[in-house]
Design brief:
- This protein has two domains: 76 residues, no CATH class; 169 residues, Rossmann fold, CATH 3.40.50.
- The protein is of the alpha/beta class.
- Helix content is 54%, strand content 10%.
- The protein is globular.
- The protein contains 14 helices and five strands.
- The protein has a five-stranded parallel sheet.
């Protein structure tokens, strides 16, 4: 039994926006119109924007057709990678964009710069390891977290940045609104979760338990970066339970890189410097003035 052969579709009969006869007439005379239309349908905006310029360059250089097509493909891929990276950075919800290039490593002698630079390669994310940055206020823990988070976005990893207080508040709200499971799955999907400022605000019993549950779900599945102004032996003050604190630290420190960042407050020193530069004859800025 024979079947009729599948008819070959004429490109000129493909649907155009509005099936405007004027477009058909124009496209028959001007292939450029059809090309731009098809590139739009195929979602190849860089092709559509660059093909004319690249074709002229290739003609002048005597480049063959495969290499001409290769150049266009490379431009399209580069733009898609750039847009994907920009989207990851937006989705990370960084409060500000900071890089490690602007961090003053000499001012923080206790920080292991070699370890930070090693972490910037993001291999720890592939190995599903954690980072804990511990130190007093104003020493740049958030800056380091933002810088390493930015590197992770640039290397193709999904990142979410959030303060501990905001994270717990969102978890409690999700529980109250009966969407906790969905929210936990969303948070668990990030390859790197940065929880900033753990220790500044004591957590309620419910909040501490929700935070513990979330971080336990991420254990050995994804990476978590936590900054805290408190040493481990004071975490019970935040979480309220020695048993819960011990269980949480057991999970966080199993595969961990610890950044010790104890030293003089960078913000305090910077405030003093700016005040002195602005008013050389003014009296010296006190610690309480700078912290107001």
């Amino acid at each position: 039994m024979s079947y009729p052969s599948k008819p070959i579709m004429d490109p000129l009969t493909l649907n155009h926006p509005g099936d405007d006869p004027a477009i058909f007439a124009t496209s028959a005379e001007t292939p450029q119109v059809l090309l731009e239309h098809y590139l739009k349908l195929l979602r190849l905006p860089t092709f559509g924007r660059e093909y004319d310029k690249v074709s002229q360059q290739c003609a002048q250089e005597g480049v063959d057709h495969p290499r001409f097509l290769l150049r266009l493909c490379e431009l399209e891929v580069l733009e898609r990678k750039q847009k994907a990276m920009e989207k990851r950075i937006r989705n990370a919800r960084f409060p500000v964009i900071k890089s490690l290039d602007s961090f003053d490593f000499p001012a923080m002698a206790s920080l292991n710069k070699s370890l930070v630079l090693e972490l910037s390669r993001c291999d720890y994310i592939t190995r599903k390891e954690n980072i804990l940055a511990l130190g007093n206020s104003g020493t740049g823990k958030t800056h380091i977290a933002l810088g390493l988070g930015l590197f992770a976005c640039q290397k193709g990893h999904s990142v979410r940045f959030v303060t501990a207080a905001s994270l717990v508040r969102e978890l409690i709200e999700a529980k109250d609104e009966k969407r906790l499971l969905r929210f936990q799955k969303q948070l668990a999907s990030y390859e790197l979760l940065i929880v900033d400022e753990l220790g500044f605000v004591p957590l309620s019993k419910s909040g501490a338990e929700l935070l513990f549950e979330l971080l336990s779900q991420r254990y050995e599945r994804t990476s978590t970066f936590i900054t805290s102004n408190l040493p481990f032996n004071e975490w019970t003050e935040i979480l309220g339970s020695e048993r819960l604190t011990g269980a949480l630290l057991d999970r966080l420190t199993h595969h961990v890189h610890i950044l010790e960042m104890n030293g003089p407050s960078y913000r305090l020193q910077d405030s003093k410097k700016r005040r002195k530069n602005a008013s050389p004859d003014s009296t010296e800025l006190t610690d309480s003035d700078a912290l107001q």
